[in-house]
Specification:
By secondary structure, this protein is an alpha/beta fold. It has helices at about 10-15, 40-45, 65-75, 110, 125-140, 145-155, 160-180, 205-215, 240-255, and strands spanning about 1-5, 25, 25-30, 30, 45-50, 75-80, 105-110, 120-125, 185, 195-200, 220, 235. It starts with a strand and ends in a 6-residue tail after the last helix.
Length: about 260
């Protein structure tokens, strides 16, 4: 199983639980460097995971290129699109825009509708793969309870709450990023999702996470959680209420020059 080198750890853990070998694919300017995949890994691969927009980096990947690569080499491409509704550069995009053959798009109400407790969403794509997964879920006892299905259907029929949340996340990202830049913490403007992927040349990720917690009350995740080579970064999720984001930003700005 191939997955992005910088990513949420569930992809690698899922492969481990399934008895597969997980192989990280390096990123080039935030996108999968497909040319770096060795012949041996390519020939052995069953699945290539993409995640766009990315958790934790907020970068967008080239889904058309990923789909083409998968079809060329006979590798299923599973596209994690749970943050697609929170795309800041251009319109939300899906790998399904480039055909269904050999691909699977995965979505969730956890992010779109803040319904993480339901543990539900949908997948769509290659008909044979969808049918196979339906049978697996049936025989593994992974069916979603009818009340949860009804709630998910209701959430997907409404876009107004998503637009409200998009505006809320965008404002929070902008506000907190401005404050972090004031204390010389580097944060790229994310292309999607609701995370800030930050680094401080003066500290490693663990030290930066500790400093943010100590002086601003900001709890962040050291970058090593998302890849062994990311020790210099932290991930900040703007999921707290607006007033808490404002409080953290104000605390940081008060430390300009002394962070």
């Amino acid at each position: 199983m191939l997955y992005p080198e910088v990513s949420y750890p569930t992809y690698a853990m899922g492969a481990t639980l399934a008895g597969l070998r997980a192989r990280a694919v390096p990123l080039l300017e935030g996108r999968l460097d497909l040319d770096s995949i060795t012949t041996e890994d390519r020939e052995r691969a069953l699945v290539l995971w993409t995640n766009s927009p990315s958790n934790p980096t907020g970068r967008l990947d080239d889904l058309e290129r990923a789909a083409t690569w998968g079809r060329t080499h006979g590798v299923l491409v599973a596209s994690d699109e749970c943050y697609a509704d929170f795309t800041w550069r251009g319109d939300p995009r899906s790998i399904l825009q480039h055909g269904e053959d050999g691909v699977l798009a995965v979505h969730s109400v956890s992010k779109r509708s803040n319904l993480a407790g339901l543990r539900a969403g949908f997948y769509a794509g290659d008909p044979e793969v969808v049918e196979y997964l339906r049978l697996v879920r049936q025989h593994a006892g992974l069916m979603v309870a009818a009340p949860v299905q009804a709630a998910v259907a209701l959430a997907y029929r409404d876009d107004e709450h998503v637009e409200e949340q998009r505006a809320r996340y965008r404002a929070r990202l902008s506000r907190l990023r401005r404050a972090l830049l004031e204390v010389n913490v580097e944060c790229d403007d994310p292309e999607g999702a609701f995370y800030l992927w930050c680094r401080d040349p003066r500290r490693d990720g663990w030290a930066l996470a500790a400093r943010l917690a100590e002086v601003a009350g900001v709890v962040s995740s050291p970058g090593e959680f998302y890849g062994s080579g990311e020790s210099g970064h932290v991930r900040i999720a703007v999921v707290q209420p607006d007033e808490r984001i404002e409080l953290a930003a104000t605390r940081l700005e008060a430390l300009a020059g002394d962070f």
